[in-house]
Amino acid sequence: MKDKNNNNFDNLKKQNHYLIIKKKENDNKRKATRKNIKILLLTKIEKLRNFISNQLYPSHFSCIFCGEEITKHNQYNTCEKCYKNLPFIKNKQICLICGSPIKSLAEICEHCYNKRPYYNFARAVFEFDSEISKLVQAFKYNNSKYLFKPLSFYMANIYKNNDFNCDFIVPVPLSKEKYTERGYNQSLLLAKQLSYRINIPIKENLVVKIRQTLSQTMLKSSERKINLENAYEVTNRKEIKNKTILIVDDVMTTGSTINTISKLLINYGAKEIQVLTLAKTNLYKTKKETQNKQFLNLIFDKLEKLEIKYKNKRLKRKELKTLNKQLKSIKEKYEKHIKE
Ligand SMILES: [Zn+2]
Ligand SMILES: [Zn+2]
Q: Do 186 and 272 share a domain, yes or no?
């Protein structure tokens, strides 16, 4: 490579000498040669970058969702087939505050209507379905750190195409115990990559988690609030005065954690809180699923009771009739519920 460059340099010198005689021609030629060298060097940079990035991230050119090799590379590391089927929220009707997909024509969901959150608005890239859940599991528990970069491109896109205007980013912190156990904070890694893409600074340790809490997923909404009380603290209150802050997290479920942090920041003088997450649970769907489960449990309870009552009994004609009636009624209720 060195010899080649030297040769190029010699050529340049020779050309220079010749061009002293034909000045105008000379200038043009010199420009053209410089342009060629520049193109050559730029190609080398590109090649080197691809080489290093292949060494660092072996899965660099395979789809982060299905693992298939990508023939046409893109910043999202996603193959065309998966990209088409991703549960993007941007294509759906959402609550203007929490960003949850809603089916009604209302602009604000029931949840936000009943109690307005402390943050101004939240947006997410994906609806949290089983595919996205697998991805989140991978970077949360399997240490698949190569995922953060392509995912941050998805998030940056949402930032740029919505009304975000933040002064800096705050990732949702983990407690010290959790951090030691996992070795990294997935929200911080996402936020760092995002910060780089949208060119907005990140303040890593401005909000800290001072108390370990129970996993929110197992708790009811009222228990979640108690669980989170006094769990977070702001380390430098001056820094947040009159600032518009972007909270970044991987998944937003009911939003209790993010709302708790938002409340803290607003109470200490922040001007506005905006939220960006990779995924958002569809609250409508969750509510329906919960109702479904409760209903099915009720039916199973009834059937079990009937079974116990009649199992070891010789049934008279009248009793048989009653049982038949009861079963019919349960079946009808079930069918009606399924149709709703
Ligand atoms: Zn794929
Ligand atoms: Zn809402």
A: yes
Query: Is the model's pLDDT at 165 over the cut of 90?
Result: yes
Per-residue pLDDT tens over the stretch 253-299: 888 899 999 999 999 999 999 999 999 988 777 666 666 766 776 77
Q: Is pLDDT above 90 for 8?
A: no
* Same domain as 253, residue 116: yes
Q: How far is the CA of 68 from the centre of ligand 1 (A)?
A: 6
User: Do 30 and 172 belong to one domain?
Assistant: no
* pLDDT, mean of residues 169-195: 91
Within this chain, do residues 108 and 227 fall inside the same structural domain, yes or no? yes
Q: Domain count for the chain, please give it.
A: 4
Instruction: Please give the distance, rounded to the nearest whole angstrom, from the Cα atom of residue 94 to the centre of ligand 1.
Output: 26
- Residue 87 Cα to ligand 1 middle (Å): 13
Token pair belonging to 56 = 């660092």
More confident residue, 220 or 53: 220
Tell me which residues have their CB within 5 A of the ion that is ligand 1. 63, 65-66, 79, 82
Domain that holds residue 36: 2-56
- Ligand 1 centroid distance, CA of 65 (Å): 5
CA of 69 to the centre of ligand 1 (A): 8
pTM for the model:
0.68
The closest ligand to the CA of 119 turns out to be: 2
Q: Is 117 part of a structural domain of the chain?
A: yes
190-228: b or e for each residue (b if 16 or more CB lie within 10 Å)?
A: bbbbbbebbebebbeebbebeeebeeeeebeeeebeebb
Per-residue model confidence (pLDDT) at position 1: 47
